[in-house]
Specification:
heterodimer, A: 292 residues, 15 helices, 72% helix, B: two-stranded antiparallel sheet
């Protein structure tokens, strides 16, 4: 019927074209930066590069990986991503389980829930948090990067909603067989919640990798910057004082290709986990949010 | 009708006696309290202790004098905030940028979801979704780096394209008005794909019988969109719109911070970037905390109101 009308066919053609164009627009900037990073510096500074490298070279990458500051920042980022994600997932799971219980069976449940939710509504703000980290002596330590955000309330809510959907009969059967809460969590809830755990872990990993502001304020020593913070200072703020590059070297190379290479390396882990992320996350979000 | 974002859990009947009062049942439940302990302690330390630090908003805080030694100044910091032209401008910038983002960020995903829903080829559809979700996962540091390069007035890719059609180069990030436009467009560009997820879910929940019936009555696809699809999306649009109102004082710290520069402070500075510059860079800790506290309070009020409205209008609850 309507599928066969000429008007709808014209619309459909335009629609497909429009969606294809919009979709490409979402990745072309990345393709452009990738092309610049592999281009010769002359071509890059003459703005000849669009979507394909000109005078293909891996110089920018050799230079980037030859820089010790870049490598140590990369290592700090890897560490914070691994430890931060592990810690956060342990805490979120341990917290979501009790909160998924009915308040009728677990007195104090609502009080605990509000205790966490309130932190989403109100916070001390930037300066008091900064003073706290300073007083605790966490400046320039990894703890300043992974502890403050470890109890991620939004993830907690997703996880709690997922746990609530686990059939109650499973838990009851386990209890009749003599299990306690700890065995129930590890032997029943965790195995059936793998999609949610995968989704939330991947979100947490992406968050840790992308996080740059805490590094900027809590690390006085630029040598302790995670990669995202280092990139922020040299590419976005154009502050080269943190890099051990001498001025002549800087003049000789086109900073543009090196910047492009660094931007691309910064995005690379996301691009690598993205296929896995994409498979899980729609399901995870919808399951975490949709209730009948 | 089903509402996909509704997180209402039906009240479960108590397994035993429904009339039995809530009990501590500590013998069986102590592991639950134990499991909560680490998170409670961390949250107390990193979320509730800083709330105590808010007192410096009422002091002339000097780090070397500490909380007890610093002079109390009452509401002076707040009074100063409303008298200081910069901070009034900053509040206005924040609301304006956030409002533009909210409107554009609501329209784009709805339109895109409706158009995507018309696509019958599922491979094409999935491919397109994969591409449009991607920017959401990239940080503003990465995207800021890319945009700085592409928007450069000296031969950035965008200005090259504009030059090809005869437009003078535009200094997108160096001119206040263009800066605001750039911020809104780039934010929509980053997030519209991800935003379509909830609307696609809502579209998938529409009863196909409605379309079949309307087709029998001879409705065109346009009529179906106007009279079936759009009305079905309205509850979701209201929920998303209402909830984003709670963010009217969040114009996006990460984005602004990574794109702005002194040239556009007058039109691009928002509360969060202002607090950072005043408090951390200029050392005016008390003043910055007062501005931050003002923001926190208004934001809390807005968020609570928004959630109440969402609950009333569309039965949406977060837990």
């Amino acid at each position: 019927m309507y599928h066969k009308t000429t008007g709808y066919r014209i619309f459909n053609g335009f629609n497909l074209f429009f969606i294809a164009a919009v979709s490409l627009l979402c990745v072309l900037p990345l393709v452009h930066i990738l092309a610049v990073s592999f281009s010769g510096k002359a071509a890059a500074s003459a703005n000849l590069v669009t979507l394909w490298p000109i005078d293909f070279t891996v110089d920018a990458y050799t230079k980037t990986f030859g820089n010790s500051n870049f490598l140590s920042a990369l290592w700090i980022s890897v560490q914070r991503t691994v430890f931060g994600t592990l810690l956060s997932m342990v805490l979120v799971t341990l917290t979501a389980y009790p909160l998924s219980k009915e308040s009728l069976n677990f007195k104090g449940r609502s009080l605990y829930a509000w205790f966490f939710i309130f932190t989403m509504l109100f916070s001390g703000g930037l300066i008091p948090s900064y003073i706290l980290i300073q007083k605790l002596g966490l400046i320039n330590t990894m703890w300043a990067l992974i502890l403050p955000g470890a109890v991620a309330v939004w993830n907690l809510i997703l996880m709690m909603n997922f746990f609530r959907n686990v059939p109650k009969e499973l838990e009851e059967a386990a209890f009749i067989d003599g299990a306690n809460h700890i065995t129930t969590l590890f032997r029943i809830y965790l195995p059936v919640s793998m999609p949610a755990i995968a989704t939330i872990s991947l979100f947490t990993m992406v968050g840790q990798w992308n996080s740059w502001f805490d590094g900027l304020i809590y690390m006085n020593d630029a040598a302790k910057y995670p990669l995202a913070t280092l990139m922020q200072t040299i590419i976005v703020q154009q502050d080269f004082s943190n890099m051990n590059v001498d001025a002549t070297q800087l003049q000789n190379m086109s900073q543009r290709t090196v910047n492009a290479a660094q931007i691309f390396i910064g995005a690379l882990p996301i691009l690598l986990v993205y296929p896995f992320l994409q498979r899980f996350f729609v399901k995870g979000i919808v399951l975490g949010a949709v209730k009948e | 009708m089903e509402q996909p974002l509704t997180t209402n859990t039906p009240v479960r009947q108590a397994t035993h006696n429904p009339r039995k009062r809530t009990r501590w049942n500590f013998k069986r439940n102590w592991p639950l309290h134990l499991m909560l302990l680490p998170s409670v302690l961390l949250t107390l330390l990193f979320a509730y202790v800083p709330m105590g630090g808010i007192i410096i908003a009422f002091q002339d805080f000097k780090p070397w004098l500490g909380f007890t030694g610093s002079k109390w100044v009452g509401w002076d910091n707040f009074r100063f905030m409303f008298e200081y032209p910069d901070s009034v401008q900053v509040i206005w910038n924040t609301v304006l940028i956030a409002a533009m983002k909210i409107v554009a960020g609501l329209v784009a995903p709805v339109v895109f979801a409706i158009l995507l829903n018309e696509v019958r080829n599922s491979t094409f559809k999935r491919f397109s979704q994969t591409l449009v979700y991607l920017p959401h996962f990239l940080s503003w540091v990465v995207l800021g780096g890319i945009l700085l390069d592409m928007l450069s007035p000296e031969g950035g890719l965008i200005n090259q394209v504009l030059a090809a059609v005869g437009v003078e180069p535009i200094f997108f990030l160096g001119d206040g008005d263009w800066f605001r436009v750039t911020v809104v467009i780039s934010d929509v560009w980053k997030e519209f794909g991800f935003g379509t997820i909830v609307f696609l879910a809502a579209l998938a929940g529409i009863n196909p019988a409605l379309y079949e019936a309307s087709e029998v009555d001879g409705a065109t696809r346009l009529k179906q969109t106007l009279h079936i699809t759009l009305p079905a999306l309205v509850p979701m649009i209201i929920v998303v719109g209402t909830l984003s109102l709670g963010n009217i004082l969040n114009a996006g710290f990460d984005q602004i911070f990574n794109l702005y520069n002194p040239l556009v402070y007058d039109k691009g500075d928002i509360i969060d970037t202002f607090v950072y510059r005043m408090g951390i860079l200029n050392g005016k800790m008390s003043f910055a905390t007062a501005v931050g506290l003002f923001k926190s309070f208004v934001a809390m009020f807005l968020v609570i109101t928004a959630y109440r409205m969402a609950y009333k209008i569309a039965n949406y609850r977060i837990f």
